Design the sequence.
């Protein structure tokens, strides 16, 4: 649609330029006007401002001027029509697009809201896409929204500090909020607002200053991530235990044949009938090829490398590891 209007505008401008030069060259070469007089006569003729001629016109000059007036009226009118349609349609397309996006957001439940679409926000979105998790991005910069807009991204343009913007993103129905803004004060304000709106919301916030960590926790953040601190620890670990770090890095690689995935499975997926059974009775290794490396109890306690005799409790979770094809088998078997 935009290309169509741009081609029409190009055509209208080309016609205007053409009739302008026809007038100038006609008055100059056919009727011996000076260049400045030819330009003047062409301008007052095309714009129909009604100023008088420079001297009495001959019959042929009157015919030429009449032709120039008629053609310019149609061409100028066409140009105004095309430009007006483009301006109005651009506004309408934007409104229709926003309504369509808002309608999709209004149908979401248990989705994730990402505040800020900078480096950290984009990485979070890519990870959520890999796990096919619905998310909405709240971004204040319209240029960033336009640059990254497509049918798969749901954007809400506005300030995440405002409750109205968070409500448009569906915070009342969301399961998780990720505050990825570069300013600690902005993240703190968003955490406070979000916690007041949705008491059950899981909130993950970014922080740059260590002094902000406790404040974000007190404000209601469940997890606070400090990218700079993690980066420094990571680089130091590459010196001390490089092989271990490279192996752990490989756990987060997506889409490669030799990559390793870590997945969590809730109790209701592995025990759909609600019966509590031991890990060894699941026979998960034989069915899927994945290995169980962790267990989270209903009380939130973690057990690394749980014993085969451990009985799974309701509301608990298993943490498994496997290659991509094994994880796919796991998801098909247990409908994760």
Sequence:
């Amino acid at each position: 649609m935009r290309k169509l209007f741009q081609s029409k505008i190009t055509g209208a401008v080309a016609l205007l330029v053409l009739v302008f030069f026809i007038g100038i060259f006609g008055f100059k070469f056919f009727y011996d006007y000076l260049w400045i007089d030819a330009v003047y006569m062409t301008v007052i003729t095309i714009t129909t401002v009604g100023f008088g001629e420079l001297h009495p016109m001959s019959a042929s000059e009157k015919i030429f001027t009449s032709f120039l007036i008629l053609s310019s009226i149609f061409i100028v009118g066409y140009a105004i029509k095309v430009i007006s349609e483009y301006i109005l349609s651009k506004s309408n397309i934007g409104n229709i697009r926003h309504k369509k996006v808002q309608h999709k957001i209004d149908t979401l439940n248990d989705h994730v809201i990402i505040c800020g679409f900078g480096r950290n926000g984009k990485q979070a979105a890519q990870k959520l896409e890999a796990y096919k998790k619905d998310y909405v991005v709240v971004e204040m910069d319209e240029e960033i929204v336009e640059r990254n807009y497509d049918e798969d991204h749901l954007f809400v343009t506005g300030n995440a500090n405002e409750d109205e913007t968070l409500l448009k993103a569906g915070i009342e129905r969301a399961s998780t909020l990720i505050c990825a803004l570069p300013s600690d004060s902005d993240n703190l304000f968003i955490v406070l607002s979000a916690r007041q709106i949705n008491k059950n919301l899981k909130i993950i916030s970014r922080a740059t200053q260590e002094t902000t960590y406790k404040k974000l926790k007190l404000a209601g953040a469940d997890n606070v991530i400090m990218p700079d601190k993690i980066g420094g620890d990571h680089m130091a670990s590459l010196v001390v235990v490089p092989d271990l770090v490279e192996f752990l890095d490989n756990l987060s690689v997506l889409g490669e044949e030799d990559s390793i995935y870590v997945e969590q499975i809730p109790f209701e997926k592995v025990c759909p009938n609600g019966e509590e059974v031991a890990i060894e009775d699941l026979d998960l290794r034989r069915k899927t090829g994945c290995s169980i490396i962790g267990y989270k109890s209903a009380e939130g306690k973690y057990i690394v490398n749980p014993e085969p005799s451990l009985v799974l409790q309701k509301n608990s979770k298993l943490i498994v590891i496997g290659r991509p094809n094994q994880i796919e088998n796991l998801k098909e078997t247990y409908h994760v």
